[in-house]
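user: At home tonight, take the chain set out below, taking as long as you need, and be ready to discuss the fold:
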Amino acid sequence: MAANHNDNGTNGYITNSTAATPATTPCMAISLAGKVIAITGANRGIGLGIANSCLTNGAEHVFSIDIGDTGEDFLDVQKQFPGKLHAIKADVTKEDTIIQALDSIIEQVGSVNGMVVNAGRTKHKPALDFTTEEIDQLWSINLYGSFYCARAAARAFIKQGVKGSIVFTASMASYRPNKRVPSAPYGASKAGVRNMTHTLALEWAQYNIRVNSVSPGLVNTAMTYWVPQQPDWNQQLKYYGGMPRLAEVEELGGAYVYLLSDAASYTTSIDIPVNGVIGIC
């Protein structure tokens, strides 16, 4: 029996050269050379570690958008990269201040290519003990603030006509609760961030804006100093398995650098867990 063929003789396969040719030449190098990156909450902690990683991987400028003041840790990184690490004050819960901060960045250096939505708040206590004020504080920064920052960045990218990248800091608590210190409002806010990642990626793909997230596990910061001080910490690690330590902030940076880089030009709507396989959270 003769095989069935389509009228165009392609045997069912598309041979149109336009369809087979990628819209852009793929980038194979993971680098942030020439890019301007804004990071909320980067005066210290995880945000500063991300900033350090971005600069180490060639970013032209990194701007910390933070409501607080910079400290010695920030100045140390600033000294390593003269003229490249900057700080702008803004309140992520007020969208107009984020818009002003991004406008200021563009005015100073000409563009902004990536936005890391990192500013957040955490509080761990039993659900029955949370006050309305405490819940509002968590959600105003972690949820509303994240949405405002992402939307301000998207508008800036569209106005510039750049293929921008937005990376949220989510959390392993968005997947499952921390068994030792659960926090229903915090986990819910970070789960909301991950859902926001997927929804905004879908909406903004038409503008060549990519939206992804990174979910850290336990990270060695000022907020987690108490974790390894627990008397049964070593026993916990044996029980939960994985790498027997907390992550250093710089160990998260590679995931952000990849997602911000042109090497991730077809990567959107994903979350990258950075958890060392520790089951504690």
Q: What stands out?
A: The longest strand covers residues 210-216. Residues 258 and 264 are 6 Å apart (CA to CA).
